[in-house]
């Protein structure tokens, strides 16, 4: 049967032959926002795909949904008291329930738009994600910058969006829409963050500094222990164990049970205390202003005083911080699975895993030259790492005078970082060559503990 004679095709033409072609229309912003609220969103904002803030996001967004012209950001409130509880099973139940609600609301919005002949797509608010790209960018849309651009809040020093009314007790979702809108939103004119530093005081791994610096590696290693990288580390603990007795020496029964719980009911956060203690937001701030001491005693102190296992990388800033700041907490050194698979991933990821305090006393410039078939365009790839005054700067090309020059075959350097090749073997086989003192390479490695 020819497709022209198929019953479905004939029915379509019979139904639509008298209908005029649908002209391009501009969607009304007020109607779209009401649709989102009717679907269950507590707040909503709209931005255009051409917004400059999406410069780094646009390619991935359009790859997922090429017809995207407008992004709708939605906010769903979480219940505050469960998030504040020292019992993290209570907090995680709220995270999971609210996360499911965000996805359901976004699903309903897309269905309503589709029924009106408007194309739309809703990427996941959290998991599942594009795990084939791990440890690179695994999400389709970065919900936080979209929400900020759409006027739904600002980032606090704890790296969470703070809504002007609901505070940081929110989860975010994004809907990609095929259509222009009559009016778009702008960011709000102030930051709801009070800079009270309670998130600094509550974080068990010192990931948030009073000066606004953020240790991604510390937060990821502990809080996300039962997500991506922590799971791979746990699997490697199983593989490396000779028998059940050795496994139990590596992993306690409580840890095994906790991993089972995350695998069965959804991955559980180990902390997220920064969200718990934050008093920002018009509907949140009242009790804090009425009695700051009580807020500290009832919400902050129970999290600080909690006896729990804190997961850190060996010889990391976090390990030193927990040992000094919370001696009653049990410190366990683990891996976090953040192993780059490409030179590009190594260069982009280095600032996120750099440990400032481990670099104390090191002031040096490192020139890297990577060679091999893995390098795009077949040309050597050059980069400069400058470590001065406990800060890191990574730039393309060779800049400034090098205290140590490193020429490495790309695949060998990756295997070295992943601990699949020893540096001595790499130097003896000249897969990695140094021009300068070896001790500088050792000092460099201490800044990026694995």
From TrEMBL:
Residues 184-213 form the 4Fe-4S ferredoxin-type domain. Keywords: Iron, Iron-sulfur, Metal-binding. It comes from the Bacteria. GO terms for molecular function: iron-sulfur cluster binding; metal ion binding. The keyword Manganese does not apply. The keyword ATP-binding does not apply. InterPro entries: 4Fe4S_Fe-S-bd, 4Fe4S_Fe_S_CS, SCP2_sterol-bd_dom_sf. This is 4Fe-4S ferredoxin. It comes from Planctopirus hydrillae. The lineage of its organism: Bacteria, Pseudomonadati, Planctomycetota, Planctomycetia, Planctomycetales.
């Amino acid at each position: 049967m020819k497709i022209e004679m198929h019953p479905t095709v004939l029915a379509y033409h019979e139904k639509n032959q008298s209908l005029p072609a649908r002209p391009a229309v501009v969607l009304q912003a007020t109607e779209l926002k009401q649709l989102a609220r009717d679907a269950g969103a507590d707040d909503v904002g709209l931005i255009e795909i051409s917004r400059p803030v999406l410069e780094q996001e646009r390619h991935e967004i359009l790859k997922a949904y090429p017809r995207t012209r407008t992004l709708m950001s939605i906010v769903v409130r979480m219940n505050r008291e469960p998030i504040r509880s020292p019992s993290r099973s209570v907090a995680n139940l709220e995270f999971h329930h609210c996360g499911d609600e965000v996805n359901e609301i976004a699903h309903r919005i897309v269905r309503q738009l589709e029924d009106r002949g408007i194309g739309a797509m809703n990427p996941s608010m959290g998991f599942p994600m594009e795990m084939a790209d791990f440890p690179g960018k695994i999400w389709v849309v970065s919900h936080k910058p979209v929400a900020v651009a759409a006027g739904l809040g600002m980032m606090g020093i704890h790296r969470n969006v703070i809504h002007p009314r609901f505070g940081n007790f929110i989860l975010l979702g994004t809907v990609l829409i095929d259509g222009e809108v009559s009016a778009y939103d702008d960011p709000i004119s102030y930051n709801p963050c009070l800079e009270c530093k309670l998130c600094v005081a509550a974080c068990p791994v010192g990931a948030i500094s009073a000066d606004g610096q953020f240790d991604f590696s510390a937060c990821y290693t502990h809080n996300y222990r039962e997500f991506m990288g922590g799971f791979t580390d746990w699997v490697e603990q199983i593989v490396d164990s000779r028998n059940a007795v050795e496994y139990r020496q590596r992993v306690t029964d409580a840890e095994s049970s906790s991993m089972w719980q995350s695998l069965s009911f959804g991955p559980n956060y180990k902390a997220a205390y920064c969200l718990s203690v934050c008093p920002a937001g018009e509907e949140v701030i009242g009790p804090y202003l009425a009695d700051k001491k009580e807020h500290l005693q009832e919400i902050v102190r129970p999290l600080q005083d909690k006896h729990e296992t804190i997961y850190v990388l060996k010889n990391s800033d976090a390990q030193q911080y927990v040992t000094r700041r919370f001696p009653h907490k049990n410190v366990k050194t683990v891996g976090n699975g953040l192993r780059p698979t490409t030179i590009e991933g190594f260069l982009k990821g280095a600032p996120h895993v750099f440990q400032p305090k481990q670099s104390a006393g090191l002031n040096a410039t490192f020139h890297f030259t990577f060679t091999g078939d893995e390098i795009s365009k077949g040309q050597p790839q050059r980069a400069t790492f400058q470590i001065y005054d406990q800060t890191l700067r990574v730039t393309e090309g060779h800049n400034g005078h090098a205290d140590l020059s490193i020429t490495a075959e790309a695949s060998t350097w990756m295997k070295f970082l992943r601990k699949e090749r020893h540096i001595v073997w790499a130097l003896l086989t000249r897969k990695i060559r140094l021009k300068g003192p070896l001790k500088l390479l050792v000092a460099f490695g201490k800044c990026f503990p694995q």
